[in-house]
Amino acid sequence: MQHQNSKPKGQGWCWMMIMIPRLLRVYINRRILITIRNIIRFILTTLQTLYLFVTMSKPSSSDPLQPPLFDPKQPSVPISYPIKTLEDLKTRSYFNSFHYPFNIALLPMSHHAASSSSSSSSSSLPNRRRLLVCHDMAGGYLDDKWVQGGTNPDAYAIWHWHLIDVFVYFSHSLVTIPPPCWTNTAHRHGVKVLGTFIIEWDEGRAACDVLLSTKESAQMYAERLVELAVTLGFDGWLINMEVNLDRGQIPNLKEFVDHLSSLMHSSVPGSVVLWYDSVTVDGDLNWQDQLNYYNKPFFDICDGIFVNYTWKENYPSLSAAVASDRRFDVYMGIDVFGRNTYGGGQWNVNVALDVLRKDDVSAAIFAPGWVYETKQPPDFETANNSWWDLVEKSWGVLRKHPGVLPFYTNFDQGRGYHISMDGDLVSDATWCNISCQGFQPHLNFADSTNPIQVFTDLKGSSYSGGGNITFKGSLEEHAHFEKKIFETEFVLSELPIHLTYSVKSDGNSSLGLKLAFTSTTNKREYILLASQPLNNFSGNFSKAIMTDGNKGPSPGWVINQGTIAMNGYTLAEIHAVCYRCDSPTNKLRWLYSSDSSDSTSASTSDYFAILGHISIQTLEYKSDFPVASSWQVDTKYMKWTPGPQGSKILSLQISWELKDGKNHQFRSYNVYLVKSSKQEGTSSRLEHVKEYLGVAQAKCYYVSELKVPSGTYSLKFIIQVCGDDGTLQELDESPYYELAVEGPQISITM
Q1: d(Cα 117, Cα 125) in Å, to the nearest integer?
Q2: What is the pLDDT of residue 47?
Q3: CA–CA separation, 395 vs 524, rounded Å?
Q4: What's the start-to-end Cα distance of the chain, in Å?
Q5: How far, in Å, CA of 277 to CA of 252, rounded?
Q6: Distances (CA, A) of 80 to 77, 132, 140, 141, 646
């Protein structure tokens, strides 16, 4: 894999070195390409050395436009970043980084692992063909590097997790550590996440002389990789050795792969180590494009092989024959950019998938971000849905949402234009943070023939987070419209389940939920949850249950609740049901368009409603929030500097742990700030409104360059715990840290 896909800002020479071979790849084989790239690299390195010699010969002067070198030990806005040298891997320097604790994934895979499919190997992957997605975009670590979230509402994201089994984060750095945002949301959807260990080019050949110098050295570096995965919470590694080796180094290479696999499996049950089809057992860098004699020895000591993407039509069946009972561990590569890949990739990705489905082997889609990077029309959201629709129609939906209650989703895509909590707007700033993704609905590409269009909306009102599902179109008075939004696998016990969902609608537009249940004898029951009796079409369901509809805490929202007992059944599907309310005077009226002054001016057939969230739990479930006094909240790396007009600028890290040392799993932590000041002429204390600062996916949060106005008496940082079922701890009952603000301050505490 030699992919990079767009020009990083301010890195012109590096971009040339990436793009020239990329443009040539269509016409030149990889071995010649490597030679060309090495020549280009030598020329550019020479030019850069001459440039540095000339510039360093001049008198030194500070350049305000030149950013300071990145020092991972110094406090700054937390980021994710790769490890670039074997020395840094060996010395474990990553764990001494300021950024390390922020990069620990909050959600372990075991918490949301699917319980249905049996496994044929220690990797506990389902015993069927699988879909692997390898994310490669412009060197990686773009908007997703900002651990606490960025500001780009149009940042790249994946939301078709129901099609994916394994997600690989790829870059051309030695050790590519997945940003925790990908691990958190993938684990939420039951998808495994792998980092990448890649050796390439001349420096990679030199690194192999160290890595593979002895059996003990190979084992030690494997152990370092295991430690990273275990500590940071992801599920394994893709190993890509893109160099020529001496035959004498192959035994230690096999020891490296074998030790990495066995130690990963013993340390993280269900972990995965994959081999990329590159160097052969003879030590030659010679991509086979299939599983065969030359790469099977590596396949035999790990969990599978990612086959290079220039395979021919009969190679999948040949590989399946070689793999024997491990055919599903063969992942045939598909380059979405299309260079020399079977079928051409891009909008023909289904051509390759059809072959792999026929031959019943797994697929590895490389660089699906092609849609985003090449700006496919008309816009990313629409084009991305269309592209993944091709994948779904070819490959099928083989996964269901993990069958673990409680189930909660707010339809958040991990990016947007505002943030709400329980219907109240807490931030109108643009943002991106893939960790915040809720369970993503199964919304197929819009069918223009449907009377109601269904789509995820990031700009309209949200009940929680920054998204909703919008239903908009035309619906006659006695008609109804159904849309499947989830396929699930919740096995119900004697305890009834309790469902809550929020709706905001226009006029007499109403929205209910249809739940599809299956029994062990394949009997199907359809239960409708609605806010009023529906005599017109209630006969279409096994049972209709009236929900308790209450006005939400924020104007316009109606919170619907219902309880269902279906002992021994499995909740298999969730559908949204659009219908007309027979008594519009009993419904809240809310206009979608802010410039509309009279809802009666709309056509009586116009329909508009939004679904804000869905929560499902057993009747006895209750969010267990530890009391505020049970938390230990601390600060460090505190830095004060003077600001304008008597203000101060504060940066600090806030950390929190339960005093009993228990590791409770919570969805996330919202961080709020309350500024207190003294009323002029009195000793009274005036508290300002609670200001939303951000969300933490780890048990720490970094406040960067906070402006503290003159006259501020104290700062109270509140840590609001967020439950798996979407409930939020009351702010007045949440743990906090209060910091006194006194006089002029220029200080740093570590």
Answers
A1: 8
A2: 60
A3: 26
A4: 42
A5: 18
A6: 10, 22, 10, 7, 35
Please give the average per-residue pLDDT across 37-62, as a whole number: 49
Query: How confident is the model at residue 537, as a pLDDT?
Result: 73
| pLDDT score at 447 | 74
Contact 332, 315 (CB under 8 A): yes
How many Cα atoms occupy the beta-carbon half-sphere of 326 within 13 Å?
A: 18
Among 44, 29, 545, CA closest to 310: 29
Structure tokens at 307: 């086959």
Determine how many CB atoms are found less than 10 A away from the CB of residue 266: 11
**Strand ranges (DSSP E) for 282-404?**
305-307, 330-335, 362-366
What is the average per-residue pLDDT within 79-85?
98
Secondary structure (3-state) at 428: coil
Contacts of 225 (CB under 8 A, 6+ apart): 89, 175, 195, 197, 237, 260
- Whole-number mean pLDDT of the chain? 87
pLDDT at 61 over 50: no
* CA nearest neighbour of 452 among 470, 438, 473, 434: 473
CA angle 362, 123, 207 (to 5 degrees): 85
CB-based burial label for 42 (10 Å; 0-12, 13-18, 19+): exposed
Q: What digits encode the pLDDT tens for the residues 361-385?
A: 999 999 999 999 999 999 999 999 9
Q: Report cis status (omega within 30 of 0) of the bond before 297.
A: no
How far is it, in rounded angstroms, from Cα 464 to Cα 437? 11
47 versus 227: the higher-pLDDT residue is 227
Question: Does pLDDT of 19 surpass 90?
Answer: no
Pairing state between β 452-457 and 691-696: unpaired
Rounded Cα–Cα distance for residues 433 and 192 (Å): 19
